Structures are given as structure tokens and as C-alpha cells.
Amino acid sequence: MKSLLFADKVRAVVHAIPKGKTMTYGDVAAKAGHPGAARAVGGIMKLNYDPTIPCHRVIKRDGTVGEYNRGGPDIKRTLLKKEGAIL
Predict the structure, then answer these.
(1) Buried b vs exposed e over 10-36: b needs ≥16 C-beta within 10 Å?
(2) Domains defined along the chain, listed by start
(3) What amino acid positions are annotated as catalytic residues?
């Protein structure tokens, strides 16, 4: 069986984040098998335009939303509020 690339693992982890929940970039990296690769997760999410991968659910360690490649942080915040993930 073919081994998954780190980017594929990251996308799989993010795909599994349920509506109304978030994970930090570091949490995603750790769950994908590479603790300490939070910046790499950010790079992968920056290039994600697959609507089935809810990259807006990945936030910074300090609880701020961070950037969003589909409209910026204000859109990301609005989506998270709509889902009940943040107040």
C-alpha cells in the first residue's frame, strides 16, 4: 500500500474536524504524525482550495483565527461563528 504524504495526512485530519470544532495548526501536525510541523500545516492550508477540506477550522495556538486563503481572517471568523466554534 502506498504511504500517504504529509500533506495528504494533514488534509485527512482537517477533513475530519467536525462542524463547530477547531484544531490548532500544531494539533493537526501532531495528529498527522509530525509534531512541531505547525508552520508546514499552515503552508498546506494556504494552498488548499478543496471545498471538502474545512481549512477554516484550523486556528492558531493562541486562539486567534489566523489567515484564510478564501477571503481573509474576517471571513474565517464569520464561518467559525456561524458554525458555533467561536463566539
Answers:
(1) bbebbeebeeeebbbbbbbbbbbeeee
(2) 6-83 (1.10.10.10)
(3) 55
